[in-house]
Amino acid sequence: MNFTTKIPISKSNSPIDYSSKMVSLGSCFAVNMAEKFDYFKFQNTCNPFGILFHPLAIENIILKALNLKFFTEEDIFFQNERWHCFDVHSDLSNTNKEDFLQVLNGFVKTTNKQITEASHIIITYGTSWVYRNKQTEKVVANCHKVSQNQFDKEILSVATIEKSIQNTIDLIEKVNPKCAIIFTVSPVRHIKDGFSENQRSKANLISAIHSTFEIRNTTNIYFPSYEIMMDELRDYRFYAEDMLHPTQVAIDYIWERFCNSTISENAFLTMEAVETIQKGVLHRPFNSNSESHLKFTNQLELKISKLKSEFSFMKF
Fold first, then answer.
1. 139-180 tens-digit pLDDT
2. What is the separation, in whole angstroms, between the first and last Cα of the chain?
3. Which of 65, 128, 289, 303 is least crowded, fewest Cβ atoms below 10 Å from its Cβ?
4. Are the CB atoms for 251 and 32 separated by under 8 Å?
């Protein structure tokens, strides 16, 4: 008997392999997937400006990077003994103003280069809910625990998200027309917004992505992360203790579905070789001076050398 509904996913026309260069942007689920890319030693950069949850935040960062629009003192503010920027995540906040601006503008330069050279850009949207700063009337990427009375909360319409997606695609295609863009919606539940509000939020994202694809007749890709979690993994055992984030088992399963549809079969043998090394690196012997362990270590070093001779970017 079949106890799940398997979502059909077409094979990608632009599969990822070990020559691919990827940039991942978006929600915390983008980080989950990027950790898989890192584990298997693909060439991947993830969220240089930190986790970004909604389409306007991602569009804004891509716009800044590709136009080399650098951050200035007007873009940052001081609160709770740290400098913050409404366009980036709190992980980048800094106690020193000059260091903060230097780091932000360094990421502008490197992100420009990475997007320009990328073969694949993976964009993971988390929510349609946004916060608009009352003083500037601008939508922020992160509130940085600033008093909530300084913001208006609103939901992005399907039309607004469509326009943002089209702007994002246009920006990337202008500098890198051959790049494949993979869109997905995070399976993480944002129930602090409310149960119905979370579903409405995800629905707006999914509707806007598919509407954009229909309008543009685009060759870009939609990978159904959210749908896999909702339909194939329809059980609370696949959620972490907070009942919001997917467990590692769920992440592994979605990654497997991603591999089968989006990663080239030619890369699978290399992935197996990398995983063998990764497990070997984590191995802890009972006796590190034993003959068997020394032999194991030598064999592991030979495997690493062999892979690095073929893929010089790999580091273990």
1. 999 999 999 999 999 999 999 999 999 999 999 999 999 999
2. 43
3. 289
4. yes
Q: Report the amino acid identity of residue 48.
A: P
Rounded alpha-carbon distances, angstroms, from residue 100 to 72, 88, 165: 10, 11, 29
- Cα(72)–Cα(240) distance, rounded to whole angstroms? 40
CA–CA distance, 248 with 36 (Å, rounded to integer): 11
3-state secondary structure of 261: helix
Phi/psi at 90 (nearest 5 deg)? -65, -20
Angular region, 80: left φ>0, alpha ψ -120 to 50, beta rest:
left
Radius of gyration of the chain (CA): 21
17 phi, psi to nearest 5 deg: -135, -170
Max CA distance (Å), the chain:
69
pTM of the model: 0.94
Cα distance between residue 119 and residue 22, in whole Å: 6
Name the strand (E) or helix (H) holding 206. helix 195-216
In the sheet where 221-222 sits, what is the strand order?
A: 43-46, 21-26, 120-125, 180-185, 221-222
The Cα–Cα gap between 172 and 108 comes to 15
127 is written with which tokens?
A: 């929510």
Which of 59-65's residues contact partners 24+ apart within 8 Å by CB, and which partners?
59/164, 59/167, 59/168, 59/171, 60/87, 60/141, 61/25, 61/87, 61/88, 61/111, 61/141, 62/25, 62/115, 62/168, 62/171, 62/172, 63/167, 63/171, 64/108, 65/107, 65/108, 65/111, 65/112, 65/115
- Report d(CA 49, CA 105) in Å as an integer: 10
**pLDDT tens, residue by residue, 171-210:** 999 999 999 999 999 999 999 999 999 999 999 999 999 9
The 3 state secondary structure assigned to 106-164 is: HHHHHHHHHHHHCCEEEEEECCCEEEEECCCCCEECCCCCCCHHHEEEEECCHHHHHHH
